[in-house]
Amino acid sequence: MKKAIMNAEVEKELQDALTRHELWRCTQCGQCTPVCPSARHDGIRTRDVMERALVGAMELGTEASIWQCLMCNSCSERCQLGVDPAHVISLLRSAAAFHGNCPEHFAEELKLFKSSGMSFPRTGLTKKMRKEFSLPELDVSQDTMDELAKLMERTKLGRL
User: How far apart are CA 92 and CA 18, in angstroms?
Assistant: First the structure.
């Protein structure tokens, strides 16, 4: 496996996070992969991702498999060693996104979230359905938007 050449700051930050997360505890037992709904449909192979993350052999600028994870946490629930593969994948996704590797639908959702405070569009159909179910209108207050802007500014989310 080829070791990825990454931005030194991002690589150090990712390795520090993986070390704090005790990724080294992963023994490659493979229990995480069979419970994964994505793996059952030729998607992500969790054990493979964990191994490549452990040895630093991920091309985060082009890695596609980490985006196939459904974030259902089945792998983390199954892991008897408490490694939490879902969290490892979320760390890898963050680093990959920093390198410009982010699927278009995630980028579009982020744009919508930044502009409206919601991760789904408010359409006429959405409003109609909310009314039919006697749910209140969804309005995000200016205070909430200001708080969101501060959070995005202080986190990596604001840099994407």
Answer: 9
